[in-house]
Amino acid sequence: MKLVFAIVSNEDGNLVMRELNKAGVPVTKMASTGGFLRAGNTTLLSGVEEEDVQKAVDIIAKFSMKRKQILFTPEPMIGSIDMDYSSFPEEIETGGATIFVVDVERFEKV
Q1: What angle do CA 35, 98, 44 make, to 5 degrees?
Q2: In CATH terms, is domain 2-66+96-103 a member of 1.10.10.60?
Q3: 4-38, pLDDT tens digit by residue?
């Protein structure tokens, strides 16, 4: 047995979970927060047999969308005595999924 951890954006969490369930893949949803943008994420946990791991990963990859987002990063104004900062827009890519697959030493459903 394997445990699949998938960290996806909140926008995709319900869709990914629904598609996993449709495919017969059990899944548990947990709310989480990312460190980079401090944005809400959804962490999905799924205990699957080894032969079903690729099916789960494929579904997660298919329904976890990448998006472009404008991030305003502070940039010090050159020559400013007060060290004023101005916002500098930068386009970044967010979304997608981060997936971990780990061995399960013991599994019990009670």
Answers
A1: 95
A2: no
A3: 999 998 889 999 999 999 999 999 999 887 665 56
